[in-house]
Amino acid sequence: MNTLAITIGITLFLMLVIFMAYSVYNIRKNAKLKSFYKKLLWVGLGILFVLAISSKTVPEFHMFMSLVLINYIKAMYFSVVGFGFFYIGKGIYNKIKTIITKIKVRAA
Questions:
Q1: 17-20, Cβ contacts within 8 angstroms, sequence gap of 24 or more
Q2: Confidence of residue 81 (pLDDT cuts 50, 70, 90)
Q3: Burial tier of 39 (Cβ tally within 10 Å: 0-12, 13-18, 19+)
Q4: In degrees rounded to 5, what are phi and psi of residue 44?
């Protein structure tokens, strides 16, 4: 691999980390979303607990619960990414709206 490919990979990874941090920051600022994600955290911990208990007792149920855990992690990831895009879109909309109102005030 050349240095350009490595640099691009590192840059994209850092952009993803910054985007996720921005999303989590905005979710923590909103009280309703914060309580919603706390409840989802307890659901995830419950899935992990059931997964730990079922590892030796019922192997078929353990495989099913591992699939449930994978889908739970994917759903959490996509919901955080979705809210991140929502907050970015909301910020851009608010900036455009303030620019338009400033232009209208100057024109009047």
A1: 19/81, 19/84, 20/80, 20/81, 20/84
A2: very high
A3: exposed
A4: -65, -40
